[in-house]
Write a structure and sequence with these properties.
The chain is mainly alpha-helical. The chain folds into 2 domains: 130 residues, Winged helix-like DNA-binding domain superfamily/Winged helix DNA-binding domain (Arc Repressor Mutant, subunit A, Orthogonal Bundle), CATH 1.10.10; 48 residues. Helix content is 49%, strand content 10%. It is built from 7 helices and 7 strands, in the order ββααααββαααβββ. The strands form 3 sheets. A 3-stranded antiparallel sheet has the order 5-6-7, with no helix packed on it. The chain has a two-stranded antiparallel ribbon with strand order 1-2. Strands 3-4 form a two-stranded antiparallel sheet. β5 and β6 form a beta hairpin. α2 crosses α4, α2 packs across α5 and α3 crosses α4. It binds iron/sulfur cluster (SF4). The site of iron/sulfur cluster has 12 residues, from loops. The site of iron/sulfur cluster (SF4) has 12 residues, from loops.
């Protein structure tokens, strides 16, 4: 026989209104975080396994695929080895090895910065782009999302975006957001774009790229 025991805190209900005590609130948050962690961990694991298998066909390890994908999405302020290390949360040594393989295999090409010859920029080659098209998004994710109603698909995306933002803000992490959502992004009367931080002009396509200097919180000057 299963016995169900209900534990009700003395101040849980008052005048028909639920009053969640601070202790209950903390416990609920902890339970939600644990549940969320378990879901995210499982999803990450399944996605990573799928990316690993597909990447191996092209001789790529998951970290190399991640670096390649980042470089395909970032702007020209963010395509340096230091920025790749920042984004992936890896050491400079690990990133250096990862990028070395990508360059050697022709997925990425190096160029020297015109203003500062100590700075190296990394660009995805047509070969790298072709491989990325095969790997991202991974098939396991696409087929899973196809099983959800279209409206829910959008909801999942928006909620995950909110969670990512909250997590980055709560922990003081760089947002690496898209340029057009940055407080420094300016669209002039003639339609041309400019970065208020560097005072340099931006191309139309830059608006959709991610940037290591992205800031959605500071008050625009
Ligand atoms: S506007 Fe913001 S995101 Fe865009 S290039 Fe400038 S700092 Fe980066």
């Amino acid at each position: 026989m299963v016995m169900v025991v209900r534990i009700q805190e003395p101040n849980a209900w008052r005048d028909g209104v639920s009053i969640v005590s601070p202790l209950t609130g903390c416990l609920l948050k902890a339970m939600n975080s644990t549940r969320l962690y378990e879901h995210i961990e499982r999803i990450s694991n399944l996605v990573r396994t799928s990316v690993r298998k597909a990447g191996l066909i092209h001789g790529l390890q998951p970290v190399q695929t991640e670096a390649l994908h980042y470089l395909s999405r970032c702007n020209h302020y963010s395509n340096t080895p230091v920025a790749v290390a920042d984004y992936l949360g890896l050491t400079k040594g690990t990133v250096s090895q990862t990028l070395g393989v990508l360059v050697q295999d022709g997925f990425v090409k190096k160029t020297i910065d015109l203003k500062d010859r100590r700075v190296v920029h990394l660009q995805v080659t047509p070969r790298g782009e072709k491989v990325l098209n095969d790997l991202v998004p991974p098939q396991i994710l696409t087929s899973g999302l196809e099983n959800l109603p279209a409206a829910m698909n959008d909801q999942v995306g928006s909620l995950l975006e909110l969670l990512l933002l909250a997590l980055q803000q709560a922990n003081g992490l760089k947002s690496f957001g898209t340029c057009k959502t940055c407080c420094h992004h300016r669209v002039q009367e003639n339609g041309l774009r400019m970065c208020g931080l560097t005072q340099e002009m931006l191309a139309e396509a830059d608006g959709e790229k991610i940037c290591r200097e992205h800031d959605s919180t500071a008050v625009a000057a």
